[in-house]
């Protein structure tokens, strides 16, 4: 028998070969239309999947099929569900190489969060019905968790789902829902036992976003973009009972698994590293005068913090490698990487100077104008998937064993 520790040593020894395999695959298989894209597209990965013209959209669709055939579209999923069953270390290497080559990662809600939730907690029928369309990219998903009075304190949500024959009738409101305007399906949390303690009376459902009674209204965020965040109104929406995920009133415990996976964000470390590299390359560009001492010190501090982030991510990856779900460790990583994203965006703006006034779409804007956009957007990262204050509470109670306040 090979021990778990020995397996880990073997896996680490194989990483250089796996890195070569990934690099060679990207170099040989990446469609021509997606080659030579600006490095900023790899750093600011949210834009790397956007197809602004039919040829680019077709190339992205082709790239999706190629990644899926390798199992690298969903590298953490089990092989039987269309994934590659990669270790956390291999996933880190895969994301690292994709970002280095500015190759679209095709990260989305379905592949990253919804799929694993269904694999962990869904029925066989639900897996057969939903997972293939997630892999094909035919269904777009959103998470219907937060409410106007239940953001940081998610367990206080008031959206209700009451049983009526073979359906549940849902009434309530959700807010800050990313991508709801394009979503076909949503992962919904609703209260099914109003008299139960708040953590124990919540259930999880798959919601058809096109069902009667669902209204999506876009919100304009600080960047001036409408529709990245949305509010949703649910009025007498009928959800089939077969679309409940897991057991009734156990939704809170299922969503904690989803959020721990989302908070671990090991793949985001490579993203942060690439962003820092792009900023350093920009700092060395003859386009800018020699940097003043305060900006050079800022860059030096960011370099140190990126290394700290890498160390934290390795700790979370080691927990995942052992087949466990990181808890307070995910909170540490989420807190550190989102706060670092804010500081990194601020450093970028100091470097850009007056060029930081040039926004996305301006042909003269350095980094495609993504520097100022990220500066405005970065604050939302400290709120998404649990605020920095919530992460500190998790670290205090679950990590340090301190009493709740």
Compact description:
The protein is of the alpha+beta class and 405 residues long. Helix content is 49%, strand content 14%.
SSE topology:
Blueprint lengths: L3 H26 L9 H5 L10 H17 L17 H13 L8 H13 L2 H13 L4 E4 L15 E5 L2 E9 L9 E7 L10 E7 L5 E7 L5 E15 L3 E2 L5 H14 L1 H18 L9 H29 L6 H25 L17 H12 L6 H12 L6
Parallel strand pairs: 1-4
Antiparallel strand pairs: 2-3, 3-7, 4-5, 5-8, 6-7
Helix pairs in contact: 1-4, 4-8, 5-6, 5-7, 7-10, 8-9, 8-10, 9-10, 10-11, 10-12
Structural class of the helix and strand makeup?
alpha+beta
What ranges have pLDDT less than 50 throughout 5 or more consecutive residues?
1-11
| Total DSSP helices | 12
The CATH architecture of the largest domain can be given as: Up-down Bundle
Tally of strands:
8
The third-level CATH topology of the largest domain is Butyryl-CoA Dehydrogenase, subunit A, domain 3
Query: What is the CATH C-level name of the largest domain?
Result: Mainly Alpha
User: What separation lies between the terminal Cα atoms?
Assistant: 47 Å
Mean pLDDT: 87
CATH homologous superfamily label of the largest domain: Butyryl-CoA Dehydrogenase, subunit A, domain 3
Q: Sketch the topology as an H/E string, one letter per element.
A: HHHHHHEEEEEEEEHHHHHH
Tell me the Rg in angstroms: 22 Å
Strand order of the largest sheet: 1-4-5-8
Number of domains: 3
The backbone outline, from C-alpha atoms, is globular
Share of residues in strands:
5-15%
Helix percent band: 40-55%
The largest sheet is: 4 strands, mixed
């Amino acid at each position: 028998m090979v021990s778990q520790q020995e397996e880990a040593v073997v896996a680490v020894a194989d990483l250089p070969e796996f890195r070569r395999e990934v690099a060679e695959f990207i170099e040989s298989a990446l469609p021509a239309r997606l080659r030579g894209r600006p490095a900023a597209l790899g750093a600011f990965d949210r834009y790397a999947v956007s197809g602004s013209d039919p040829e680019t959209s077709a190339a992205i669709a082709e790239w999706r099929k190629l990644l899926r055939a390798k199992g690298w579209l969903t590298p953490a999923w089990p092989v039987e569900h269309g994934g590659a069953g990669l270790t956390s270390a291999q996933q880190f290497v895969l994301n690292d190489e994709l970002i280095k080559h500015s190759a679209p990662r095709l990260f989305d809600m379905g592949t990253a969060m919804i799929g694993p939730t269904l694999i962990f907690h869904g029925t066989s029928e639900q897996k057969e019905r939903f997972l293939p369309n997630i892999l094909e990219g035919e269904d777009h998903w959103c998470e219907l968790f937060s409410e106007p009075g239940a953001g940081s304190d998610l367990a206080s949500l008031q959206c209700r789902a009451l049983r009526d024959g073979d359906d549940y009738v849902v009434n309530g409101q959700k807010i800050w829902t990313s991508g709801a305007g394009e979503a076909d399906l949503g992962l919904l949390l609703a209260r099914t036992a109003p008299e139960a303690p708040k953590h124990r009376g919540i259930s999880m459902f798959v919601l058809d976003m096109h069902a009667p009674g669902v209204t999506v209204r876009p919100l304009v965020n600080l960047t001036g973009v409408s529709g990245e965040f949305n509010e949703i109104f649910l009025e007498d929406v009928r959800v089939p009972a077969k679309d409940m995920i897991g057991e009734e009133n156990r939704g809170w415990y299922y969503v904690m698994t989803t959020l721990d996976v989302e908070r671990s964000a090991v793949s985001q470390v490579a993203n942060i590293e690439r962003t820092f590299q792009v900023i350093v390359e920009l700092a060395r560009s003859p386009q800018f005068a020699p940097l003043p001492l305060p900006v050079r010190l800022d860059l030096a501090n960011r370099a140190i913090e990126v290394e700290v982030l890498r160390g934290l991510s390795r700790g979370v990856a080691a927990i995942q490698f052992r087949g466990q779900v990181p808890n307070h460790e995910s909170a540490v990583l989420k807190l550190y990487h989102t706060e670092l994203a804010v500081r990194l965006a601020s450093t970028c703006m100091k470097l850009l100077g007056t060029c930081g006034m040039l926004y996305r779409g301006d042909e003269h804007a350095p980094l495609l104008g993504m520097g100022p956009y990220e500066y405005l957007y970065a604050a939302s990262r400290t709120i998404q998937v649990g605020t920095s204050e919530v992460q500190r509470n998790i670290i205090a109670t679950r990590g340090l064993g301190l009493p709740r306040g």
